[in-house]
């Protein structure tokens, strides 16, 4: 670990500083410091806009599907160290962990079945962040993306393959970044807190009449919380006791001029995990991810616009003797516009080339897809949406993913959405090609398929939004591993079906100019083809509530409680599993965030523009465990640290 840290400090830290300096040098002058408009001067309809559902900006209530948004103001009010903290507050989401991938998994609607996050598609400014190794090595993004530059996070709960293809299965998450005009010219921050955790952040932003650029850098180094774990091995028991030390870094850069935008993100996450093959029970997982994108907007006329994207996704993983890599290229062309005053359309095509190396095994695949979505304003209060995506990954049959939905505005406050959609998750390189003594590849795997019917009734005013949703999903051809009859212990197969259904109530409201509430209550249940309930281990109940206060006098605070109910016992799914480790119980993950703007509080405008933030995590000091959902061999795995506090000082120059 020490040698790895030297490498990070010597190479990646310098890489981040170099990008910051380049941005500063190439900008002729930095823009003057400016303050954004007070968020309370805007109504919720202005704040809660979304682009992920139709690839164009639209109001939340006009977007097809069950959609939601977390704004930059909410992130500021409630705090958070990374994306995982923020996603835990979203409706029907839960961040969990396995041994191999401790910071990798996010469950949504009880429709995730594996340790890698390949049932949710992540986008950065609408561009897919997806690897061809297993489709979900996302901890560098979840831990290392600089959250200070996030404008909003957009969510689709439910299938999204009609526009985005593989992985848009249980849902889609689109991270929309701020522009340089939204940021201060130079921001620096440092943080110190529990478990000897040190974080440094820096952002440089500049712009002119027809150009802008920004660079954001973050680096975390933590001794980590004490991890205690037991696992059966060779007729005995291996105990793991160590500090879960963690080192993470991330760099995001963007340059825009006229109609051309170049952007890139690089993230690395190294964390200690439990390995029964190690004498100490401890090993390190190291994941590196990057995305480089070029986007060109072609404005044909006032109503038609084309967009070309060339996106490179890269991955390197290192755990023990496993050393894997992928290099993937995604080329996409989209055309959108109006056929008439009432009819809009979006259509496009995608070519993907995947190249990977799994230890000494190389693989090469291609994916082809085409899509079209139209929406028709049938009347002043009724909009109809239909769409279809055709997909043809290498080695599998072609797939068609449809979407049909209707949006009815009952009056100026109430509305209704109903819809049906399908999505698929294609097999990835680790499942098709990776072969060792532990697990056997299967080149004949079929894609997983999900079919979802859903409905939502919503209510909105200038200060309030809430929605009540119901969904029913059927998942088939699930990709999983089972005991093998061959030389390996396990093999990949398509096995079984899962049906799931649930109800989600969510809302946001402003009680006064400075006092806001947001939260959700969700219930879900699922069942496999054998009639076993809740086989994905997601709790049936989640309840989340946050209250924030900000009157613009230099002081703001937010308190957020995320309650997660009782998950399924591993023994209910695998009766042979051991009873080692504590039984997972329901828990409250209570966080507190306070922002103190020093010049305003002290009434001295001559002081530097500095903000002191106090963030408290797991204030109730809950013992948080979750079932060993990956191996299903032991009762639980520790998930989260105990009570922790972090102090952040941010200065804008």
Characterization of this structure:
- By secondary structure, this protein is mostly beta strands.
- It contains 9 helices and 38 strands.
- The strands form 7 sheets. It has a 22-stranded antiparallel β-barrel.
- It is globular and about 65 Å long.
Compute the gyration radius: what is it?
24 Å
**Count of helices?**
9
State the share of residues found in helices, binned by percent.
under 10%
What fraction of residues sit in β-strands? over 45%
Topology, pairings included?
Elements: H1 2-26, H2 44-47, E1 49-50, E2 58-59, E3 66-71, H3 72-78, H4 83-87, E4 93-96, E5 105-108, E6 120-124, E7 127-129, H5 139-144, E8 150-157, H6 161-164, E9 171-177, E10 186-193, E11 197-207, E12 211-222, E13 226-233, E14 236-243, E15 246-257, E16 260-274, E17 282-299, E18 304-319, E19 322-338, E20 343-358, E21 361-377, E22 382-393, E23 399-409, E24 414-425, H7 429-432, E25 439-440, E26 448-460, E27 464-476, E28 479-483, E29 490-494, E30 497-510, E31 515-528, E32 541-550, E33 555-564, H8 570-573, E34 587-597, H9 598-602, E35 609-617, E36 625-626, E37 637-638, E38 644-652
Parallel strand pairs: 6-9, 25-29
Antiparallel strand pairs: 1-2, 3-8, 4-5, 6-7, 8-9, 10-11, 10-38, 11-12, 12-15, 13-14, 15-16, 16-17, 17-18, 18-19, 19-20, 20-21, 21-22, 22-23, 23-24, 24-26, 26-27, 27-30, 28-29, 30-31, 31-32, 32-33, 33-34, 34-35, 35-38, 36-37
């Amino acid at each position: 670990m020490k040698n790895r840290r030297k490498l990070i400090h010597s190479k990646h830290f310098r890489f981040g500083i170099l990008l910051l300096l380049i941005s500063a040098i190439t900008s002729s002058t930095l823009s003057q410091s400016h303050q954004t408009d007070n968020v309370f001067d805007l109504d919720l309809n202005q704040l809660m806009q979304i682009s992920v559902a139709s690839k164009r900006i639209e109001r939340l209530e006009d977007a097809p599907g069950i959609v939601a948004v977390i704004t930059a103001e909410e992130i500021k009010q409630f705090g958070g160290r990374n994306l995982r903290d923020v996603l835990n507050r979203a409706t029907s989401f839960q961040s969990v962990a396995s041994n191999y991938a401790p910071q990798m998994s996010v469950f949504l609607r009880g429709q995730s079945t594996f340790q890698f996050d390949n049932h949710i598609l992540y986008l950065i400014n609408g561009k897919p962040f997806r690897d061809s190794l297993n489709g979900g090595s996302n901890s560098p993004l979840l831990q290392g993306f600089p959250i200070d530059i996030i404008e909003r996070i957009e969510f689709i709960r439910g299938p999204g393959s009609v526009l985005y293809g593989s992985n848009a299965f249980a849902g889609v998450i689109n991270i929309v970044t701020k522009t340089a005009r939204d940021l201060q010219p130079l921001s620096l921050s440092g943080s110190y807190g529990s478990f000897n955790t040190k974080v440094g952040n820096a952002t440089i932003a500049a712009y002119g009449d027809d150009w802008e650029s920004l660079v954001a850098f973050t680096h975390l180094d933590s001794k980590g919380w004490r991890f205690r774990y037991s696992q059966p091995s060779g007729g005995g028991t291996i105990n793991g006791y160590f500090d879960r030390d963690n080192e993470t870094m991330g760099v995001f850069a963007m340059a825009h001029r006229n109609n051309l935008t170049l952007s890139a993100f690089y993230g690395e996450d190294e964390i200690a995990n439990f390995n029964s093959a190690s004498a100490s029970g401890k090993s390190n997982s190291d994941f590196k991810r990057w995305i480089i994108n070029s986007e060109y907007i072609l404005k044909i006329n006032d109503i038609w616009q084309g967009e070309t994207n060339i996106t490179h996704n890269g991955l390197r993983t290192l755990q023990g003797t496993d050393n894997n890599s992928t290099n993937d290229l995604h080329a996409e062309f989209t055309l959108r516009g109006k056929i008439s005053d009432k009819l809009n359309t979006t259509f496009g095509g995608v070519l993907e080339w995947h190249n990977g190396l799994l230890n000494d095994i190389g693989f090469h695949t291609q994916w082809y897809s085409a899509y079209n979505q139209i929406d028709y304003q049938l009347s002043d209060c009724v909009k109809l949406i239909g769409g279809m995506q055709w997909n043809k990954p290498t080695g599998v049959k072609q797939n068609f993913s449809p979407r049909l939905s209707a949006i009815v505005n009952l009056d100026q406050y109430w509305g209704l959405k109903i819809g049906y959609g399908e999505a698929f998750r294609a097999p990835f390189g680790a499942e098709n090609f990776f072969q060792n003594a532990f697990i056997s590849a299967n080149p004949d795997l079929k894609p997983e398929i999900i079919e979802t019917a859903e409905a939502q009734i919503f209510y909105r005013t200038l200060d309030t939004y809430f929605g009540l949703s119901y969904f029913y999903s059927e998942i088939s051809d699930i990709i999983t591993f089972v005991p093998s009859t061959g030389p390996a212990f396990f093999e990949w197969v398509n096995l079984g079906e899962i049906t799931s259904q649930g109800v989600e109530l969510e809302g946001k409201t402003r009680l006064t100019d400075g006092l806001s509430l947001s939260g959700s209550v969700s219930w879900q249940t699922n069942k496999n083809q054998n009639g076993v309930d809740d086989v994905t281990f997601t709790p049936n109940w989640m309840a989340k509530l946050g209250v924030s206060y900000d009157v613009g006098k230099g002081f703001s605070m937010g308190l957020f409680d995320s309650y997660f109910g009782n998950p399924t016992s591993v023994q209910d799914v695998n009766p042979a599993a051991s009873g080692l480790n504590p039984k997972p119980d329901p828990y409250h993950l209570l966080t507190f965030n306070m922002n103190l703007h020093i010049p305003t509080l002290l009434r001295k405008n001559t002081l530097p523009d500095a903000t002191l933030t106090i963030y408290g995590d797991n204030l109730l000091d809950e013992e948080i465990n979750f079932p060993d959902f990956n191996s299903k061999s032991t009762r639980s795995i520790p998930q989260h640290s105990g009570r922790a506090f972090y102090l952040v000082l941010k200065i804008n120059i």
